[in-house]
Design goal:
The complex is a heterodimer of chains A (257) and B (267). Chain A has 257 residues and is mostly helical. Chain A is 74% helix and 0% strand. The radius of gyration of chain A is 19 Å and the shape is globular. In chain B, 42% of the residues lie in helices and 25% in strands. The chains are: A mainly alpha (257), B alpha/beta (267).
Chain lengths: 257, 267
Amino acid sequence: MRYDKQKYITLLKEMTLADFKTKHINAYLGVLWNLLDPLLLFGAMYLVFSVFLDWRTPDYTVYLLLGIILWTFFSDVTAKGMVSIHGKAGLITKVNFPKEIIVFSSGINALITLIISFLVFIVMFIFSPVSFHGTIFLLPVFIAQLILVALGTSFFLSAFFLRFRDLSFIWSFLLKIGFWVTPVVIPLTKIPEKYHKFLLLNPLTNIIKGARDAVIYNTSPSIFNMVWVTLAALAIFLAGYFIFKRMEKYFADYVVF
Amino acid sequence: MEYAIEVKNLKKYFKIPSERGRSIKRAFFNFLMGKSSYTHLYAVDGVSLKVREGEFVGVTGRNGSGKSTLLKLVSGVMTPDSGEIMVNGSISPFLELGAGFCKELSTVQNIYLYGSILGIPKEEIAKKVPKILEFAELERFRNAKLGGFSSGMRSRLGFSTAIQLDADIFLVDEALAVGDINFQHKCFDAFERVKKAKKTVLFVSHDVYALERFCERLLLMENGKIIDDGKPKDIIKKYALTELRVQGKMAEERRRVKRNEELFEQF
């Protein structure tokens, strides 16, 4: 069955809506539950690093919350994206349709959470001593980079998850390491300078650092940095997508087990 | 002569993993020991088939003979290991009715979801919602969550939505064994219309009664191969499809009993 652009979008919309409703319809707090997760993490980390350890960098509140929101988005998209294909086994073995829609729809759902988290962030931003800088308008660029990396990773994970179920354990392990290595909570200035070049090989570190610099410190990354991170993000997305599309036609053979 | 479906020497091989499962650890040990943790099976083993445009072709055979796999291959749900499939026209799969239904959504929302999975444009679904609800006899439940429905209600909704799709080729897997006696009559009528509209249909069933009634041609499958191809009456007679006949008779008997019961109820 061929899906033209219009049918494709209709299916994407319906599937996203169905996923959204399934997740929230029976919870009294609905979407708000998604907010609680990053906020609790934020509270705990703030307590440890700002109150107990007194590692306070200027404007640590905004610094920390922004990092946690962006990181939560990444871990949300990849962890849910990984199992999304497997979760639609009943559909995949019965109807032939473009399966990347499943991953996209799970990504859009995480994006909705991200947008709501940003509402909270804006409130906190207004009440923080951080002043408003024009560079904040670079934020969508970093978010776009993050979306590309997250979706590319999800494509890769969801396709391989069908063959190797260990991946879910491996991935949750890697996410935990990534949280500390990126680093999300530890200010980069607290890490010895000599490790920075290794940390900055990670596109996620660059994206989160770039976003923080733009929002808090009124600096934009160099053009060179911007270009290579964007290209890396695009490469991750395209690589994941093409691997996914190549493996797609055998999904029905693996998904039921 | 145009063929709607043309299949050449199709093969599909299944590897069914053992209960010990599949993982990196398993793969590693199996590689070391040179063992296989799979049960191997040729589900479709060298099938060649030509279906003319507008032909109503039945497929029957024992469980596990490869009928459903053949349909899945033709619909593109599965990819063959070897062989060619050429399909001329758009396909409507009836492989399982209501695949992708979401029990948290209402009836109407599910019509939109399932319709969009089948590739029906949104405006068209919107136009057809009342018709679908009427056909499924679920008007009263239009805003009810699907989770509370009986399996019969669910399949009725699936059938009613799927039948709305205007495709050239219909792939049907036991879809007529749906719902109560009333609904089965409506399904038969709907199929009669599909047949009259000269659509190409590949119809998998065990119901001899339905096969004889609709099909111009019947394929008999065994162990992944088509072992005979001809007029339904001849094939059924020739192979004395006792198993099937018993099932068909039973279905007919059930219908008769139900009809009588309904008559009684009227009095």
